[in-house]
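New to this. Help decode the following:
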Amino acid sequence: MWDFLGEVLKQYGFLAVVEVAQGIFIFYLLQMLSNKDKGILDLQNKLLELNEKRLEDVIEDREKYEELAERLNTSVDVLIKVMRKKNGNGEHGG
């Protein structure tokens, strides 16, 4: 690399070496930008996966809640019937 820059300096002067250095620096910056974009894309994909997992968890929790609410409703209905019978307010006109 240094040999190349030394030869450019001999043949074309200091300004040519500066131009070559700028080209190398720009190439390096573009690679960094590309790596950053790849990193952002990877993070976005991971976030999407986490959101999908969270959605699955929410749906599962909702189904469990609905089942629990139905069982609780059934239990309350049975309790009301038992209390009515105990108090003599049954359906038989008791």
Notes: Helices lie at 2-12, 14-87. The chain has a mean pLDDT of 86. The radius of gyration is 38 Å. Residues 14-87 form the longest helix (74 residues).
